[in-house]
Batch of 2 targets.
Target 1
Amino acid sequence: MTATPAVSVDSLRVEFPTKGGSFVAVKDVRFEIMPGEILGVVGESGSGKSVTSAALLQLTKFSAGRVVAGSMRLVRGDGSIVDLRRSDERRMRNVRGNEIGMIFQEPVIALNPAYTIGWQLSEGLRIHKGLSGKEANASALELLQKVRISNPKRRLKQYPHELSGGMCQRVVIAMALACEPRVLIADEPTTSLDVTVQAEILSLIALLRKETGAAVLLITHDMAVVAQMADRVVVMYRGEVVEEGSVRQILHHPRHSYTRALLAAVPKIGEMTGTDGPKRMKIASQSGKEFSPAVASEEPLLEVRELTKRFPVRGGILRRVVANVHAVECVSFGVNRNETLALVGESGSGKSTVGRCILRLEEPDSGELTFEGQNLLTLSRAGMRNQRRHMQIIFQDPYGSLNPQMRLLDQVAEPIRNYRLDKGTAVEDRVASLFDRVGMPRSFLRRYPSELSGGQRQRVAIARSLALNPKFIVADEAVSSLDVSIQAQVLNLMMELQADLGLSYLFISHDMAVVERVSHRVAVMYQGRIVEIGPRASVFGSPGHQYTKTLLAAVPRMDPDVSFADIEVQARALPSPIRSVDHQPSSSRYREILPGHFLLRNDLY
Amino acid sequence: MVYLVRRTANSVLLLLLTVSFVFVAGRMIGDPALNMLGPGATDVALEKLRRAAGLNDPLWQQYIRYVANLLQGDFGVSYRFGFSVLPSEDLDSLGQPVIDIVLERLPATFLLAAVAMGIAVPSGILMGVVAAAKPRSLADRVVTVVALAGVSVVQFWLGLMLIVFFSVQLGWLPTGGYGGLEHAILPALTLAARPIGRIAQIARSAMLDEMSKPYIVTARAKGAHEWRVVFLHALKNAAVPIITMIGDELSALLTGAILVEKIFAWPGIGLLIIDSLTRSDLPLIQASIAVVAALVVLVNLLVDLSYRIVNPRIKLGTEN
Amino acid sequence: MAPPTAMPNQEPSQFTDSRVTSRDYFWAMCRDKVTLAAFVFLALLVAFTVGAEFLAPHQPTGLNLRDRMLPPGSTGSSGAYHFLGTDELGRDLFSRLIYGARISISVGLLGAFVSCVVGVVTGLTAGYFGGLYEDVIMRLVDGMLSLPSLLVALFVLFVLGGGYTNLILVFCVLHWMVFCRLSRGLALDARSSTYVQAAKAFGAPSGRIIFRHILPNVMAPIIVLLTLEIAILILSEASLSFLGFGVQPPDPSWGLMIADGREHIRSAWWLATFPGLAIFLTALSLNLVANWVRAVTDPVQRWRWFS
């Protein structure tokens, strides 16, 4: 190849000052990006991948980061070179947005809430190209058309909060492209988006790369995204580049042990075809102990019938209920002993509300909940409190679910003390054995949550939910915020616990690949209803509902031969779940297409 | 619209409660007739007055009459009517409807509040923004300490010190009284100290909040100049808490003026309140409290409405 | 395939957020000279207030008509040294300031503390339970907050009569809402937080959730507000006493001392200056301390203080 790279980085080192001296976020990083190429930088949290991209624009200095060594160069189209490390602020301002565009992780908050889309879009043009208001507006409209946003003219006058996440990301992309930069940095551009929207945005980026010939630096934690998007890949771990190569080479012949471990930890959609039950992740378990995942029994444990939950919207002078958000609408399913039922859906589908209603952390409006033959909805407060001993919940956010002001020992002991199951030192012994059970060292008993990593916190949260010996656990996005390697460990832990203790899980998740890996049966939620439910192999193998098909098609595959530019995803904007007060939706009706595999007959889609 | 109606209804209710409270509490301090005529009054005179003023009626009837009169803008007449041992300067207010006396004093207070806020708002915002732009810098530290000093100082004491220095020692400005702009400078400066501090504090912390948000990185990544980032991007988002604080301080100025007006003998509503309190002139007290409370409620209403102008997320008629 | 590598159990995090101990707080404070000075000033103030009998050089009521209005640093006729001079009755100003501190500071402390307890309990419960209870309380709070508080205080004291106890009473009635509004907001945030949801799911009773789980986590902003309110009440006490509606004369409060000094402002500047300065420094120190507490407990900027 004779072309010169658009960006070259060599021996980059970035440090941040902290309590115990300076923290090296990035060390000795080198890579190059050719014009028109997508370079994927993949790594888990703390790998320094985002810091690297921020350093390219000298944005680290605003968060006290210092580039202490190395070189970063931008090569312009005419062959002249900009030294990105030593340029002064004035020069950098001219580079930012003009020669290097940037796309951010959370589009909704990356836009300024106080200004219109049009104003923000044209700002770069006004700064760099000196366009007048009118010209800038015309270009803004053009840009919106370029990113294929619906109704572009109207969008110009709207504010970010009036747009969905996917639309906001299109605006952010349009903004980054405004001055036709030579380089585009995309920092986790789809992490906060639903999978169908992610597919749209990724195919847009792939398309725009072709149209504009920009060099793209794509930063992500998601191996599958890299597989389908990137030409070359850089794998980062703890601030260092551990491996670099073409995407095929990295995927098929990883050399570094970290890359191999990372690849092993990623659940790959489709790899469970031909199996019925869950399968443990192919990573060495902490205890080194092997286990085989549980086989579900036929004995029902929990029965949910026609569960409905609406949230009132109030308004008017007297603050009367003017509308309802139909969060959960006529949902029915059962969970057997020792079984994992996965509840999948995108944000706003109502899946978390179902979980919270079952534990009556949210009061359902109607429906029936039967747990071990006991009707939960007729129970008194005290009766429900007693019942909660047998049903527990693990939350998504391991940072928020532990009380920051209490020792871990006390937090895990709390349920035991609340129900007076044990006294005195017996409590501590029990907590210590729970710590052993979830693979936490006992030395952590007297520590506080802030001293733990995300994976450790989730282990403690699991230990706490096990404290009462429950039979049923709602795992509400329990592994979603964890890095893949940690996620794999926690998934294995959960499967192991199920096999050993005979637990049943309601596994609420948005991640199809994880769901395929861990569940016996799957229910797909959309618009507050279950549109499809059945054995996992059947639902993934022969999906019946259009929505399930769309969802499955949108999941990125670990396959460099399937490019996002080729995938046609027919996602539609979600219709609003807010309905007028007198709206009476029909109850859900199903038909069985395969044994135990039901489809919603109501027309939603 | 719906919001406006509800908001106004709340305000009117609140005002009604306030005047009712003042009415009831006013009756608790003793016989109004005795209060009016003074301890030397004869029983005959007292009884005559009671009958004339309807003070023998049941309390609820009096209350209804009082509120009905209020709604017509009639707050009653000053107690000092027909009473001869009064300071001579106030002779012309004898028997005057109290509402006239109160309204007459308003312009002076408004002038003072306007000059004080005219000083405090721009300087406070500027100080806060500059401090937040470079946290922990020398400028930030200076602003922090100056702002804290403004908040910590006793207003009337500051006024005294200013008088001692600028009027007594240097002789540059008058020690008090009402007149041209030179009379307003010292009291306005005194009044401005606290709002400068509070506005600078809130501007600083609101700006710090905003400056740590992702859209700031977006703006920087667009190549916007740092001042553009600060003044255009962040400041508009930080406006809501700053406006709230300006509103709070404006309300506080309307009442805080009591002390400053007393120190500088500034004939505003504050001085009127303190005079009417020391002379137990109940109708005058009631009227001035009602007027000030109405002003405060009005300021709150205006602040609320202005949120909806600066923040596109807040729309009239929607809540939560 | 080669055996998969065991994953590191400890994920690296960018900023190590290890627990901050009281020793860290102590050193962070010592590094910040201004805050340290404020702490020292407040400590001295408390010492003088508590030990006034032993630490004040003279009797605050010791009349001495021969030594009237001595300027600061004078020696009186009997050889007594008057650090801050004497007043129109020949009483030692410094000693009067010390005794005055008792009143000013105890009014501020008691008023703020009682308001805090009332406000926090009502606010936390309102925010946590919600419903009609919350509606009623918040209506009351909003209404009372929109009233001009100095004016209401003046009027109520006019009706009830001034004095030490009434002053504290009025302060409590007029300031609990500030704490209520703050803690209700904090409880509202906490109620939807996952750790509270978790506590609920683990069978913790409401009282335990409010006072064992929520309260410790929202302590920092409440302490900040408490400190600020003490300063505000000390200032209000001075204002009300100055106008004659607060503490009544034989008690030497700082506000009254300024009022007395005002009459002699042209001939004896120190009489009004020093009490005002005392209030100013006390309020400033409280504000500095509050500022510092806010900074070191703020998760966003705390790392700067311990780095």
Target 2
Amino acid sequence: MKSPVEQTLPEIGTKKRLAVFKFASCDGCQLSLLDCEDELLAVADAVEIAYFLEATSRIAPGPYDVALVEGSITTPYDAERIQEVRRQASYLVTIGACATSGGIQSLKNWADHEDFLRCVYARPDYISTLETSTAIADHVAVDFELRGCPINRYQLIDVLKSLIAGRRPRTPSHSVCLDCKRRATVCVEVAQGLPCLGPVTHTGCGAICPAYDRGCYGCFGPAAQPNCDSLVAQYLDTGSTHEDLIPLLHNFNADAPEFRDAGNQIRQSAGLSTTGGRP
Amino acid sequence: MQDGTEIRRTEFLATDDLQTLLDELQSQGYRTVGPTIDQGAIIYDEIESVDDLPRGWTDRQEAGKYRLEERDDDAFFGYVVGPHSWKRFLFPAAVTVATAERTDQGWQMRTPDHDAPRYAFLGVRACELAAMRVQDRVFLEGAFVDPIYQQRRDRAFIVAVNCTQAAATCFCTSMNTGPRCNSGFDLALTEISGGFIIESGSDDGDDILERLPTQPAEDALLDQAESARQQAVDQITKKMDTDGIRDLLMQNLDHPRWDDVATRCLSCTNCTMVCPTCFCSSVSEVSDLTGDHVERQRQWDSCFNIDFSYMNGGVVRNGIRSRYRQWLTHKLATWHDQFDTSGCVGCGRCITWCPVEIDLTEEVAAIRQSTTDKAPERTDEDDAP
């Protein structure tokens, strides 16, 4: 089994220069930073916001101490641009499901993207796009990953606080189950028979869905060392079908390796393609 | 606080007078906590009146499955144990244990005033009384006393309830923890038709019992209570052979069964969270953006969490096999070394609430089976002259 992601620490310095970059995404994670209402002024005071188009048109040139990167790589242009972002950033943090695992748009990895282009655009020949949507870490080295769709803004604040203080960010990697139990939510799988990805999903959301009588759909991606095989076998044994489980795993974090592989195994046993027709 | 080791008085309390027990406890300043239906289960929460109790409901449990079902009678306590345990109230899931403020004169350290509520727990089962005694050893009887647990425990009033039925996951008879409540309560109830046999086990229990409109517990009623309690004993089918269990597990640390269970275990922490004796927590310092205000926060944690064994640059138990083995060997073996008791009380929660139906009694039985199957090995010493 592989170790949890190795996290590195930035150098302790003076006021950090912060940049926020967007790739293929909905902007929701960047907005989480602007949503930090009570802490926003303190954040603005603690760092120099050098590049953040969602917030200000004032652009200061790099290099930057910390780059927050939102979104996945879906175009040849973005595949080049992320290289430049990496060159300009001392410490690169990916924020959200798109940046850390390709996002919901990585569902196109299981389809023929030319079909999508023909369906959506009157002139598909104007569109320059890649066949797949992939995580930032598939293209450049990433120093820290912040999960979620969207990210948890308290975790974002904690990461910024850590980088300012020069300490390791405190973002645990355990399952959602621990959070359900801490908040006294009764297990929806055991008590209601709902398929729930909580046991293999990364903490961070605060275990919202089970508290509202629905199973976790894994929007924070895989927990550390998730045993997806055992969970899938259990759900197939207790009445769930591949039609329930494929969209559960191939969802907002479809291209996260553990969810991708577990979903692909079910697709294979159901006789479905795992590559969208690509070789 | 219950200190009773014997039953002092025995009376009969009619069903319609159960509310007077809650009224008395509330009038003495207790916050009454008891069983109630929520989220498809019988949980423990604050209750106001007997109307909040799961009257006429029961639970059906098996490995990985819990369902509420209607009973064909009006029993108040006709269920077994649910997803919650009383540790939630004695050992809170999250608490701030210290704060620090940076001032011109340096750091000002403070311990928050934990003015714990006075809880009255209604419906504590024998295995749960045993679990409290296990946690007492951890939090009160070692070198360091946990003041948060201590205050809550000292102030608590315990109304135990004798089980009159058992779930398929129960094995308290194997662990010698029940189902009869013998000590460690202020009052204990046994539900029979028309009411309850009520016993006191402490001065505080005597005092409350004195104020209730009880009637003498006639022999016929006592017989009814005895057979109701026997019904629970008779329904227990699950067993765990504890004979030499410490050495059995510790001498089989490389048994292939650990690899087998590691393919099934999700390492999701559910078993440890529902366990009424698991006591692990992690403590972290949380600061605001300025770094001028810091809180030291304690939260429930679990040996199944990778981060929990992170130290000095690495993870010590970096695989599900080693984490499951750590949990089971601690619970059933090294707990004896550390606390002079088993860490398991046989409540069966870890079996019911495991999403993939892992049953610790089966894991132990599998290891025992394979070792007893082996013929005794001859050693060189046997052949020595």
